[in-house]
Design brief:
Elements lengths: L25 H16 L10 E4 L4 E2 L11 E5 L15 E2 H4 L5 E5 L10 H8 L4 E5 L10 E7 L2 E5 L3 E2 L4 E10 L2 E9 L9 H28 L4 H7 L1
Parallel strand pairs: 2-4, 5-6
Antiparallel strand pairs: 1-3, 3-5, 6-7, 7-8, 9-10, 10-11
Amino acid sequence: MLEPLPDVVPEIDDLITEDDTPVDNLPSEKQQRLLTEPLYSSWGGPGEDRPFLAAANVGVFSKTHTPAIVPDMFLSLDVTVAREWWKKEHRSYFIWEFGKPPDLVLEIVSNTEGGEDAEKRRKYAWLRVPFYVIYDPQLQIMPEVLTVYRLQGLQYERQVEARFEVLHLGLSLWEGEFEGRVDTWLRWTDEQEKVIPTGKERAEQEHQRAEHERQRAERFAVLLRQAGIDPEGEEKAE
């Protein structure tokens, strides 16, 4: 249970909220967007018109004098970004501003020096982040590609399945093409364990459904004509 936050705006003038240093590699950058874009374009949200924030490479601050920790991706439910989001006090994820830590943080392992299963895991537990996911596609530091931790008390415990019932989401490895690159990707799944599509995939699916309905209508019209029935005449008669 979070303690009530003081009704005081902390001094953040000296905080470094972003350093504009390009440090991500190409696979990680694409994977991060694949974990954020579908939630906005195709996910119905956690339900009951509840807002959420999904972001990649945004600093999470717990104290004014403590450097941010920057997850590769995080998801926070029931929070709303301030209207004046260009102001410094709204540009990062300040826990005292949003009133809670993110519900899930995810790290993508790209080398052996990130401390994902050591220092970062301890920090996220200290922040009381309910779920912590480590995605290690090259098995550089973890024995498995996907490792899920759930906060139990003050520490993380391994969770066998990559399902997050309270978030109405899951994670799954998916082989396919994203932005011209065929690979194994980490994808969100819905409550029916179906992959949540990107905006492009959703548009393609809707186009295919429309095309299927058009072809079905054309075949039905042919059958009517073979039976001596004018489909246009039948439609007019209705």
